[in-house]
Amino acid sequence: MGGAEGKFRVMLVDDEPIILRSLRAAIPWDELELEVVGEAKTGDSALKLARELSPHMIISDIRMPGMDGITLMKELKADQARRIIIFISGYGEFEYAREALREGAFDYLLKPIDHDELSETIAKAARTLEKQIADDQMLHSIKVLSLLARERMLTEFIEGNRSPLQHMQWLEDSELKHEYTMAVIQLDHYLRLNELWSMDEKRLWLFAVRNVLEEWSLQHGGLTVFPFRSGEWVLLFPSLSQERQEQIGRELVQLIKQNTKLSCSVGFSSSMAGIDRLGTAYEVAVRALYQRFYSGEEGVFLGAPEAVMETASEAKYPKHLESLMVESIRTLHKERLLELFDETKAYIEEHGFNKEMTERVLLEMSVVLYRQFEHMKVLFEWSLEELLQELHASDTLQQLMAVLKNHFSRWIAESRSGQSKDNIQAVMNKAKEYIAENYQKDLSIEEVSELADLSISHFCTLFKGATGYTFLEYLTECRIQKAKGILLNTDVKVYQVAPLVGYQDPRYFTQVFKKITGKTPSEYREEAITKA
């Protein structure tokens, strides 16, 4: 509701003081959870007072000196269309009252006032206001969830998770059936920035970049824009020529620098069609961004068409080994990674790669593996440039593999050391404390993983190992335990408990509570009272 103590605000309007006193005294306002916030004796003064007090409900005489009730209602409805007006009418004013109903009055009652009837009408009006608020909250939630679901769905497709979401009916008419181009924007030196920013500063900067990109995308025909990883955003456009990609890329680099003073680079995919190609589009765009390590920062890099990529590599790039290496780094399994380097060496020898081809494959693989450390946020004072320079200076395959083994063995060892059991437990305790302090808010796994300074996937793995729960399971359990305490130890109404523990929809809260406890919140409270 609104107003003090969550009550709806009511204003009384009548030119007879005795009627105003009667309305104040005879209606059980507290019982109806309503608050009379003002009174007026004329339509003109009522309009002025209503604009100051913003009442949810107005009970007014229909005939008053000066501005009459219907004119007052039209003015008030122009300010707030959903405001409820109840009229009190004299016996000789049926036509006037009928007109009032046509113009949007909630109801009208005849004088002399039957206070029981008026109380019932007011209670009905209050229920209407509650439904309006619930509908508004539901609509807002649906809009927010729709946007989040769309972003989450696109993210899952990019990550290669062909979930049941792809069978949702609305996807059949998706604009991604037609050819599109993906742009991936990455902030330059993001790891360094991440160390300098506080959590609030980081959230502010990333929010600022997203706002800039969303506004630009809306004005320039973008299909969608959303953050994919920290310091990285994905934009989708209808299919773009290479000339247009370069133009847009330069505009985006300049736009972000101009509005946020941050440096970024943009990688483009070739044209794709179909939502199931999002993962491929992302891979092409990100591989285009790898050129940044050779040509410098703050650039626009175009991905080669898929057919060209396949022809150039003749399917020789060991993608299957790369995937296994990424998993080894994710789990910090040094021994397995070294075995995979040996398999890579054997693969290169088997396919007879020349020096140029070997160096290109290992350089690209190094960048991919380094990025996995970035995503896990376990990098220390490491230099990718130093690794690439050492690889470039190596003359033999044996020397190249030795450089890779030396660097990545050391990095995994340092990561393990930095993630000792005590350290992990401390980070997880910090995350649990944050959840305990903020469970009543719209808390996301992104927010908590940022607090822990871990990637979402790495945080999920560590959190499940430390608590035995997924993040959502733990948050839900925390909220339900808090709700139990409120139900048992306070007189707070059941529907008011939901927002206190992080649920904006009381019906959804009831469903979750019953799923966890086997009882509705009301049943849980009543059973506790009975036992006591």
UniProtKB/TrEMBL annotation:
Record's protein name: Response regulator
Pfam families: GGDEF_2, HTH_18, Response_reg
DNA-binding as UniProt keyword: yes
InterPro entries per the UniProt record, alphabetical: CdaR_GGDEF, CheY-like_superfamily, Homeodomain-like_sf, HTH_AraC, Nucleotide_cyclase, Rev_trsase/Diguanyl_cyclase, Sig_transdc_resp-reg_receiver, Tscrpt_reg_AraC-type_HTH
Location of 4-aspartylphosphate modifications: D61
Organism: Paenibacillus solani
UniProt-listed GO biological process terms: phosphorelay signal transduction system
Signal peptide (UniProt feature, chain positions): none
Gene3D superfamilies in UniProt: 3.30.70.270, 3.40.50.2300, Homeodomain-like
PANTHER family: ARAC-FAMILY TRANSCRIPTIONAL REGULATOR, HTH-TYPE TRANSCRIPTIONAL REGULATOR EXSA
UniProt GO molecular function: DNA-binding transcription factor activity; sequence-specific DNA binding
Domain Response regulatory stretches: 9-126
Alphabetical UniProt keywords: DNA-binding, Phosphoprotein, Transcription, Transcription regulation
Domain HTH araC/xylS-type: start-end pairs: 429-527
